[in-house]
Amino acid sequence: MIPPGSRYVALGSSFAAGPGIDPIVHKPAGRSGHNYAHLVAAELGLDHIDVTYSGATTAHLLDTRQDDAPPQLEAVGPDTALVTITAGGNDLEYVGTFLRGSALNTLAKPATLLGRRVANRIRARVSYLKDDAAYQAAADSLASVVENVRERSPKARILLVDYLTLVGPSTRPRLDVPLNEEQLPSVAMTADGLATAFAKAAAATGADLIAASAASREHAIGSPEPWTTGFTLRPPGILGGFVPYHPNAAGMRAVADLIVNHLRG
């Protein structure tokens, strides 16, 4: 168990930052005051530093600036007792590919008025599948993040927190998301590859694994109680718009509960 008052540093991309979940406490990062880091810190009474940033790759955690923000690892110091890491999805263009495919398919519908050939050209612009080398590179990068955290804070408890499931057993092509029967399984395969990368990194480094992906399979898009948002072209806050294909407040609460229960257990 991490004692109250201990220093907790949260590293990661948008699935940790929580864009679209009020209140947003850092607009450029899309960082929510109700993301899982804030919820865990409040539950356990931790002194936390949240440097999660939407759009971050593992490089932005390791050694690359993002906008005006330094590499996220710089927030970790010798006194850090707990570190959570949720990154790697942007290395694989996981959500970005899902978004582009959904947007192009949605835009292709009115384009059919100009002819099926035009619509098919719009749809053909997205490649969904990654090769094994891309998943292994993500696993290696996550392992490198863990190793660098250990160098900075040898006594820190390190948790690799993987991504909430977007596409699950209840997600219906064309109805719940604007992808067809051939496209949707490819997105699920990318998610599985990302989850495997987290598991490999945890096994290689001895970091703890919080398998949010497995815990959320029955809460995917199209389920009775989804933990992530679906798709929209409307900008957040305008005419019911929201940040698509990202954790919602219930999903962030669920991930926080997984982390707290793991630490207490």
From TrEMBL:
Keyword Cytoplasm: no
Keywords: Hydrolase
Pfam families: Lipase_GDSL_2 (PF13472)
SUPFAM superfamilies found in the cross-reference section: SGNH hydrolase (SSF52266)
Family annotation (InterPro entries): SEST-like (IPR037460), SGNH_hydro (IPR013830), SGNH_hydro_sf (IPR036514)
Residue span, SGNH hydrolase-type esterase domain: 10-254
Annotated CDD domains: SEST_like
GO molecular function, a single term: hydrolase activity
Listed PANTHER family: LIPASE 2 (PTHR37981), SGNH HYDROLASE-TYPE ESTERASE DOMAIN-CONTAINING PROTEIN (PTHR37981:SF1)
Name of the molecule in the record: SGNH/GDSL hydrolase family protein
Organism: Kribbella yunnanensis
